[in-house]
Design brief:
- With 154 residues, the chain is α+β, with helices and mostly antiparallel strands.
- Helix content is 20%, strand content 34%.
- The chain has 3 helices and 5 strands; from the N terminus they run H-E-H-E-E-E-E-H.
- The protein has helices at 3-8, 40-59, 145-149, and strands spanning 20-26, 63-73, 82-92, 96-106, 113-125.
- A 5-stranded antiparallel β-sheet has the order 1-3-4-5-2.
- The longest helix has 20 residues, at 40-59.
- 27% of the residues are buried.
């Protein structure tokens, strides 16, 4: 049975974003390119801010973006879409936190969520002097469900 037929029959749940909702906003026309799609840099900025919210909370202090990798723009985002950024902790190191960040949209604020962008963000915890700060023991290394499924090692 195809997934379309399963969904019509109520046998299959629509895909769900992983992790936690870290940020949500409305895509506005001022941030579109001449074709009417949102600029990729605008979406990356939202992802960076959402990741920083999660990493700051987990680190218990200031973090800075150290790396972004594996970014993939899967579908366009249009003005009027409700843009939701979800974060899922992949790994925690001595001073760093790596997150999977996914962007899902509700087209014109309605219907099923659609995954449109994904990337891996690494943040480093820093002290007042701007240098890397070791994470406290209360921020024990952990792995997301996704990382455990993919066989990530400590």
């Amino acid at each position: 049975m195809s997934s379309h037929t399963e969904r019509e029959a109520g046998l299959s749940e629509p895909p769900q974003p992983p992790g936690e909702l870290a940020a949500r906003t409305l895509a506005m026309p001022a941030d579109t390119n001449p074709s009417g799609d949102m600029f990729g840099g605008w979406i990356m900025s939202l992802m960076d801010a959402a990741g920083a919210i999660t990493a700051t909370s987990r680190a218990g202090g200031r973090v800075v973006t150290a790396a972004v990798s594996n970014i993939a723009f899967l579908q366009p985002v249009k003005a009027g879409d409700v843009v939701c950024c979800y974060t899922d902790i992949r790994r925690i190191g001595r001073s760093s936190i790596t997150l999977d960040v996914e962007v899902w949209v509700l087209r014109q604020g309605q219907g099923e969520r659609v995954r449109v962008t994904e990337a891996e963000f690494t943040f480093v915890s820093v002290g007042e002097d701007g240098r890397p700060r070791e994470l406290t023991s209360s921020v024990a290394p952990s792995f997301s469900k996704k990382a455990r499924r993919s066989g990530a090692s400590r």
